[in-house]
């Protein structure tokens, strides 16, 4: 049985007998090689004096050239002056225009005169939700006129009392 295993190992070249031949060759190869000094990426090594017959070589730069940043600063929503938009919606779809105006940082005065009550209520509900989500404000000026403002605009006073509609 051991002869069978030896033949099998010989055919696969896994027998220990051949290892000695390879080790001898390997040992001679190591002695012939000269050790190269290891260069450190972070350390500077002292330069040895270079004989005159060999030209000096420039070190290779491993840093990437800086490129311009792709980040552009955004301007704040409040430009030099304040802009107030006047809107008289006709359909529920106009509520989207009101909210887009709020999102652009502008105040909106909404005139609901002549609009059916159900549609006006849906527009106010939609606008009120948008004002809440952007930390804005929605105030009633009169029975059919409202003002919606983004967070950057402060409203003060009671608008109904100012217009004479208060009780």
UniProtKB/TrEMBL annotation:
One of its GO terms (cellular component) is cytoplasm. Cell division protein that is part of the divisome complex and is recruited early to the Z-ring. Probably stimulates Z-ring formation, perhaps through the cross-linking of FtsZ protofilaments. Its function overlaps with FtsA. One of its GO terms (biological process) is FtsZ-dependent cytokinesis. Belongs to the SepF family. It comes from the Bacteria. Residues 20-68 are annotated as: Disordered. Pfam families: SepF (PF04472). It is found in: Cytoplasm. Residues 20-35 have a biased composition (Acidic residues). The keyword Transmembrane helix does not apply. This is Cell division protein SepF. Homodimer. Interacts with FtsZ. InterPro entries: Cell_div_SepF, Cell_div_SepF/SepF-rel, SepF-like_sf. Keywords: Cell cycle, Cell division, Cytoplasm, Septation. The gene is sepF. The keyword Cell membrane does not apply.
